[in-house]
C-alpha cells in the first residue's frame, strides 16, 4: 500500500498483527452500536467511529471466511469492504487525505488500509472508552 501523501510503499500489517491487541469483537460491536445510537441522536460520527466499525467488520469477515465456504462468508466480506470504503471516504473528506486513483482500487486494498490505520491508531491510544 502507498501512503496517501507520498508515493512511499508502506507494509500493511497482517490482520493478526493489526488486531493483536484489539478488544473482543463483542466489545467492539457494543461500542459501535452505542456510537451509532449517539449518531442518530444528532452527533456526527468521528474518524474513530468509522475506523472501529471498519475494523470490527473486517475481523468478522476474516472469521467468517476462515469458518465457512466463500458463498456463506460473502455477506460479511461485502459488509467489511463497504465499511472500509466508508472509512476511506471519511478520511478523504475530513482529514485532507489525498488519494490517487490507483492507490486504493480493490476491496482488499481498502481492507488493507483499515488494518494499517487501525494498527497505527491502536499504537497511539491509551484508553478506548
Query: Rg to the nearest angstrom?
Result: 14 Å
Q: Give the end-to-end Cα distance, rounded to a whole number of Å.
A: 30 Å
Strand elements, count: 0
The outline comes out as globular
User: What are the segments in which pLDDT stays under 50 over at least 5 consecutive residues?
Assistant: 1-9
Question: In oligomeric terms, what are we looking at?
Answer: single chain
Q: Determine the mean pLDDT.
A: 85
Q: Main beta sheet: strand number and arrangement?
A: none
What is the strand content?
under 5%
Q: Given the structure, what is the number of helices?
A: 5
Could you describe the 3D structure shown?
The chain is mostly helical. 66% of the residues lie in helices and 0% in strands. The protein has helices spanning 15-18, 25-40, 47-67, 70-95, 107-124. Helix 4 (70-95) crosses helix 5. It is globular. The relative contact order is 0.18.
Amino acid at each position: 500500500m502507498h501512503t496517501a501523501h507520498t508515493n512511499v510503499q508502506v507494509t500493511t500489517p497482517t490482520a493478526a498483527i493489526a488486531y493483536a491487541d484489539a478488544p473482543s469483537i463483542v466489545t467492539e460491536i457494543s461500542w459501535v452500536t452505542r456510537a451509532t445510537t449517539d449518531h442518530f441522536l444528532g452527533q456526527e460520527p468521528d474518524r474513530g467511529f468509522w475506523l472501529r466499525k471498519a475494523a470490527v467488520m473486517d475481523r468478522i469477515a476474516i472469521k467468517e471466511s476462515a469458518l465457512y465456504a466463500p458463498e456463506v462468508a460473502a455477506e460479511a466480506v461485502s459488509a467489511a469492504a463497504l465499511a472500509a470504503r466508508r472509512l476511506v471516504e471519511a478520511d478523504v473528506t475530513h482529514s485532507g487525505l489525498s488519494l490517487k486513483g490507483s492507490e486504493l482500487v480493490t476491496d482488499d486494498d481498502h481492507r488493507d488500509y483499515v488494518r494499517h490505520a487501525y494498527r497505527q491508531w491502536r499504537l497511539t491510544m491509551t484508553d478506548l472508552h
